[in-house]
Task: structure prediction
Amino acid sequence: MSRGIVAVIGFALFVLSVGAGAAQLPGTPDKVRGQALAEGLCTNCHLVSAGQEHANADVPSFREIANREGQTAGAITGRIILPKHPMPQIPLDKSELADLAAYILSLRQSP
Result:
């Protein structure tokens, strides 16, 4: 192959990789993935989305959690890592924790 063709192919691959990364940067929390995790793991107790009909009345909804004064992703993540009874310990990796916290915070209502 000539250098020109190799350069064009290399440039095309670079553009494609940058374009794919623009939608979701590595390490950026993904609230859509967080919602999927919440719907799969948390709906037995928490009200996690508007369409959900049943939840444990003694457990705060995700919207209530999001709207607590001073609420942060770190506080949410900490509560998941070190849960208080009756919440079970849920084994999630750092990326999943960040995604779940991003989803919960996306439910925050504007003042």
Observations:
- Residues 10-22 have pLDDT under 50 and may be disordered.
- The longest helix spans residues 3-23.
- The chain has one domain: 26-106.
- The helical segments are 3-23, 31-41, 62-66, 73-81, 94-106.
